[in-house]
Design a protein that fits this description.
Transferase(Phosphotransferase), domain 1, globular, alpha+beta, 9 helices
C-alpha cells in the first residue's frame, strides 16, 4: 500500500499514512524506504538510521536560534552536536511548506544510496509526529557562496583552493551522472549548494529538486521548472527540458564564478550589458581571459590552470546542450594539457543594461546580493 509505514514496537505493528513515502522502521532503528514513483532501476529498500526527536532536540538545544545555519524553501537548518560529540546539520521540514514536503520526499529517495567524497553525507532522518527532518554531516565552512562572493573571506581562497574546489565539484557531478547506482540530475547546482568541510573540500548538497533517471534515459521534460536564475540552462528555463547537460551548464557558470569571484546573475560592467557569462566569452574571444580573474588572487595564480578552467567553463555554458561536454570530458580536459575546441556562443549571456539597474559596480564589474530560487514556471 503506497504511502504507509509499518512501525514495530515490542512486536506490535501499526499502520499510519506519512508524507507519501513507503518506509519501514525496524527494531534496529533503521528506516527502509521505497521510491513511491519507482524511479530507480532496482527495487531494493533504501535504509537510513532513525534518530529520535528527543535526540535531535538535545543536539540542537531545542532548535536554538543560535544554532540556526540558514533556511530554504523546505524550512530551517540547524547545527547540532550528538552525545558522542559528532557535529550534525539538521534540515527541518517546515510544517507549512508544501514545497518542502515534496523536497523532503525527493531528497530522501535521491540521496539515501549515494556515497561519494564530494557529496554531503546523509546520516539519517527523524520522522516523529509532525516532525520530519534529515540529518547530515556538518560542514564547518558552510557554503561556497559565503567565501567567493564576500569581499573579505574570498581572500582566504587562493587559486590552489579554488582549483581544488572546481575539480571536486566536477568529480561529484560525474558520480551523480554516471558512476552512482542511480543517475541523478541535480537541477539546482549553484554556489550556495556547494558546502565546504573543515579542509575546504567541496561537497554537493541539497537534492530536494533532483530527479532520478532510469535505464538509458538521458533527458526529460517538465512544466514545473525548479532551480535558480543565473544557473539554469536555456533549454530548461525556456522549455522545461532537463538532462545531464543542464547540470553541465550550471557547472560552467560555477566555474566562471569561482574564477571571477562574482555572481553571474546581477553582474554589471560599465562598458556593456552582458552578464558574467557574456563578459567571459567576450574576453576569451579577444584573448584577454586573464582579466576575468578575481583581483585578490594577484600574481599567485597558475596561468595555465586558470585559462584552461575559463575555457572549460565556456564550453559548458554553450547555448545548445549537444555542444556541451559530459562531466567525463570535463574532468579529462581539466587534468590534461591538450588543445581544446573553441566554445560556441553561450546561452543567456545578455544581462540588464546599465541604466536599468542600480547595482554596485567597480571598474571591472559588480554583483548582486539577491538570489532567486524558483519553484514553478510553466515551460513554453
Amino acid at each position: 500500500m503506497r504511502g504507509t509505514k509499518k512501525v514495530y514496537h515490542a512486536g506490535m505493528p501499526h499502520i499510519k499514512l506519512v508524507v507519501g513515502i513507503c518506509y519501514t522502521v525496524t527494531p534496529e532503528n533503521e528506516v527502509q524506504l521505497q521510491d513511491p514513483e519507482n524511479r530507480s532501476d532496482d527495487n531494493e529498500d533504501l535504509e537510513l538510521p532513525l534518530f529520535s526527536l528527543s535526540t535531535i532536540l538535545h543536539a540542537t538545544n531545542n532548535f536554538s536560534f543560535n544554532n540556526k545555519l540558514g533556511e530554504g524553501g523546505f524550512g530551517p537548518v540547524y547545527k547540532g552536536v550528538l552525545e558522542d560529540g559528532q557535529e550534525i546539520a539538521v534540515k527541518r521540514l517546515a510544517k507549512t511548506s508544501t514545497q518542502g514536503l515534496q523536497e523532503f520526499k525527493n531528497e530522501v529517495i535521491s540521496i539515501s544510496k549515494l556515497q561519494h567524497r564530494n557529496l554531503v553525507k546523509l546520516l539519517g532522518c527523524c520522522i516523529e509526529g509532525d516532525e520530519k527532518m534529515l540529518i547530515y554531516e556538518y560542514m564547518a565552512n558552510r557554503g561556497l557562496d559565503s567565501f567567493i562572493f564576500d569581499k573579505t573571506l574570498k581572500e582566504l581562497l587562493d587559486w590552489r583552493s579554488r582549483y581544488h574546489i572546481i575539480n571536486g565539484i566536477a568529480r561529484g557531478l560525474l558520480y551523480l551522472h554516471q558512476d552512482s547506482r542511480l543517475r541523478i540530475i541535480h537541477r539546482d547546482l549553484k554556489a550556495s549548494n556547494i558546502l565546504l568541510d573543515k579542509d575546504m573540500n567541496p561537497k554537493i548538497s541539497d537534492f530536494g529538486m533532483a530527479r532520478i533517471f532510469g535505464g538509458d534515459q538521458i533527458e526529460a521534460n517538465t512544466n514545473r521548472v525548479v532551480g535558480t536564475y543565473g544557473y539554469m540552462a536555456p533549454e530548461y528555463a525556456g522549455d522545461g527540458i532537463f538532462s545531464i547537460k543542464s547540470d553541465v551548464y550550471s557547472f560552467g557558470v560555477l566555474v566562471l564564478e569561482i574564477v571571477c569571484g562574482k555572481k553571474n546573475r546581477g553582474f554589471v560592467h560599465k562598458e556593456h550589458c552582458n552578464n558574467l557569462i557574456g563578459h567571459a566569452w567576450g574576453l576569451h574571444a579577444e584573448g584577454r581571459s586573464l582579466q576575468l580573474v578575481d583581483k585578490c588572487l594577484g600574481e599567485s595564480i597558475n596561468v595555465t590552470e586558470v585559462l584552461r578552467s575559463i575555457h572549460v567553463g565556456l564550453l559548458c555554458v554553450q547555448r545548445h546542450p549537444e555542444d556541451r561536454p559530459t562531466m567525463t570530458s570535463v574532468i579529462l580536459m581539466l587534468g590534461s594539457e591538450g588543445p581544446l575546441s573553441s566554445p560556441k556562443e553561450p546561452g543567456f549571456y545578455i544581462g540588464k543594461s546599465t541604466h536599468d539597474t542600480t547595482q554596485s559596480s567597480s571598474s571591472d564589474g559588480g554583483c548582486s546580493n539577491n538570489e532567486l530560487s524558483i519553484t514553478m514556471l510553466d515551460g513554453r
